[in-house]
Amino acid sequence: MATIQPDLPQGGFSFDNVNRNEVFAQKGIKCTKARKTGTTIAGIAFKDGVILGADTRASEGTFIADKNCSKIHYISPSMYCCGAGTAADTEYVTRLISSKIELHSLNTERKPRVVAALTMLKQMLFRYQGYVGAYLVLGGVDSTGPHLYTVHAHGSSDKLPYVTMGSGSLAAMAVFEDRYNFNMELDEAKQLVRDAIAAGIFNDLGSGSNVDLCVITKDGTDYIRPFDEANKKGVRQGKYRYKKGTTAVLGEKLLPLANMEVATSVFTSVEAMDTS
Fold this sequence. Notes:
Elements (H helix, E strand, L loop, with lengths): L16 H10 L14 E6 L2 E7 L2 E3 L2 E4 L5 E5 L2 E7 L1 H22 L5 H14 L6 E9 L2 E7 L5 E3 L2 E4 L3 H11 L6 H18 L7 E7 L2 E9 L48
Antiparallel strand pairs: 1-2, 1-10, 2-11, 3-4, 5-6, 6-7, 7-8, 8-9, 11-12
Helix pairs in contact: 2-3, 4-5
């Protein structure tokens, strides 16, 4: 007896439209282009732990799609990840790795290490060869101390004491290179990350709105949202109502109402609304 096998959805991302787009290109049909994204994300490692920071502007080309977007994503209680690039990709990738890290922790019966999450992220992004637009700053504290990594969309990674990514990364990096010190106190480190994100906000059109911080230490995690409103909306200083006669009248023409025809229409029947 023949049976019908349903088409089960495949896991992961789908790139079925790649061949279709190539055929369109051969026929001269232009496909939609990817929009430029803007973000400023950063992180530092200091003597007590790791601090991650991000702005809250989500852009869609030249439009601001969201003024209060959360770009610091949960991985585990002692690990968080900042995302730049395509918002949907960063959200999906971090949620998937968070689920895998939880399963790994339950299987090994121990707290996961930051390098384990890094390996999972690198392997997944390398598999898609950069087509998943997720540029990540991974930070956390485990049994071996604080760790801070950057992960690019092609799967490459770096381990540095301070990192920045996104379109406002150059302005943020300038602040870190001028003032970073590993032996900073907590308040000084938080202010440094805040100033770095603010530099990206004020020097990059793709970054804006507020500054979010995530402080990860061996004692716990403090997700501060928002930490500071760097780009506050200004207050209107003057009145923009002008007196009559400010603008010169070049011409004037009056039409008497007696010579104008008024058209009227009469509705003879009205269809009743069905309320049954």
